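ok so i was messing around last nite and threw this chain in just to see what happens. nothing serious, just curious
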Amino acid sequence: MDFISFSDALRKYLKIKKAPDYSTIQKFFKRMPTNMFERITEQIIQHLEIKPTTLALDGTGFTNDYTDKYYAQIRGKKRKSYTKCHIAIEVDTRIILYSQALKGPKHDTKFEIASIRSLKKYNIKYIIADKAYDDNKIRECINEEIKASDQIPLKSNFKHGWYIRLSIKTFDKKIYSGRNNVESVFSVIKRKFSGTNKSKKTRQQNKETRLKTAVYNIDRVVKILN
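result:
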């Protein structure tokens, strides 16, 4: 609101004469359809002409903290509620191609196959993830449905199978090192846009989490173009 109030150029671009009241923005956010995030991502990919070949996937938690800290302390409340966010990024540009958020705790593999299938439209060569994703169904989805190579290290107690044996032959540590980029993306989001959600309802907490990934993408595009 402060940026809009003081920037004539921004108001002109948004085609508004004055900055809206904060309550107007809150109401818009509540009514905003979740497919808006996918539309924003598609616009970014088209604008940058990104042709993803190597993707990295990971998940993290965003704390849901709308209770006053002093009130929580004197009432002895332990605030452990959080939203689990899962993303898939293009390794070279660090643009988020897919994001999903659900009330935690949720294991990352709950998101993985849906994430992989949503990226089927790209000509992907490699999908990178940590050993938490060492699952035969996930490897099968990557190799058979996406026609890509999974770059996932094996757990110490891994189960034998066709795709496990294939992974042992195709795993490349140099390619896998790109996984650090997805951790960097989460670090930037939490540092710049906060790792804590203020919304009270679960649906709004999920939307707030995904909004942060969308705003991160816009911020990232500006840096790339500059």
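not much to say yet. The longest helix spans residues 202-225.
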